[in-house]
Amino acid sequence: PATASQGASGHCKPGGAVQYEGGSARGQKHQDGPRGQHGPPRPRPPIGAEGVLLPLGVVAEAVWRVDPAVQAPETRVEGALLRGKAAQHCRRHCHESLVAVGAILVVLAEPAIASRQAAAADASCAQGGLWRAWGSRIFNGVELWESDAGRDAYEPTDGEPAPCWKQRFGLFAREVATFRPPFGGTEIRELDHPEECAQLRCRLNAEVLSDPAGAGVFLEVEVSSNPDHVTLALVDWDAGGRSSVTFSPTTGTVFRERIVGDSPRRIRGDYVQRLYAALPGVRFEGSIGLYVQGGRLAFLRRWRSCEADDFTTGQPLWETTGFVTDLSWAQGPQLTPCLAFCKEGPYHVHSARVSPEPPVQMQKVPAMLDEAAWKRFDWE
Length: 380
Prior knowledge:
Blueprint: H1 4-7, E1 17-19, E2 47-48, E3 51-52, E4 62-63, E5 74-77, E6 80-83, H2 84-92, H3 96-101, E7 104-105, H4 114-123, H5 129-138, E8 142-145, H6 165-175, E9 187-191, E10 197-199, E11 202-205, E12 217-225, E13 230-236, E14 243-248, E15 253-262, E16 265-273, E17 286-293, E18 296-303, E19 319-326, E20 334-341, E21 345-355, E22 375-379
Antiparallel strand pairs: 1-8, 2-3, 4-7, 5-6, 8-11, 9-21, 10-20, 11-20, 12-17, 12-21, 13-14, 13-20, 14-15, 15-16, 16-22, 17-18, 18-19
Helix pairs in contact: 5-6
């Protein structure tokens, strides 16, 4: 199968990055604070552990992981269940960019006061409040590639104005699940050349994601049409793209690779098979994902149908390799998710979401960090 080391093309070049927590965004010089007020300032809503809460009568924060299987008109909100019109209103008025990220819905239980109360909450968030707290939770350890080599950290340095956290949140919500040029957008439908490597615009900070007690990052890609092989990789571009870990959803195999020679190209590494391989002639179609947390990496897959092997019956479920490797193979802290394609032709691949939560409870999956199970290889 295609791997990131084999498929790295001239399109895969490192660049600058934007962190959610780390500096002001270019062109975003406003603060989330009262502007153009007359008379005494409005009182602030109460401060809670998660930031500024909306006033009474509004359900302030609902953390809801988007699940296509949830079709009933009800939504679970901080332990309470909203039914009927309230739940329908919740879904109908949620910004689609938040749904794409798959993490946070702002639920306004009283539509008549929604705009007034939301505006009051925004105006009271002089230190970032809701948007900063939400973004820090969702995009923990996530950065954005920039088009130039400049680095724009999320938290401003001394003397710089604070960013507009609401705009900042919108930027990350729109861009984290898109592909870098020359592909762009969230979909790939045609490849003109073999051994292409498509980078996502987001990259993961290994140092931030090494905290054992910290949140993780889950990234999901949907493969609807696949004429050959598609693999998902995490690449260390700080080392020139010479080190990577690649998952083949067709064979269930994980590869750790390092380029040790350029002319001729030599790849040295090891591999381990954690999931069943598909039947001969079957090409993977479904969802693939990776999850990084506590300095460990796991891969996941879900077949679109159960015809890929002789073991699965009923509705396809998520499968996972478990935490199969740590991040010691990377020489730098920034890791880029990539898709590697073996052949050219018509594909339909969609970058679905970036979320702090995977679709399975990883704490219930035994870790597979057994180095003795890996087998060495050399490719030329």
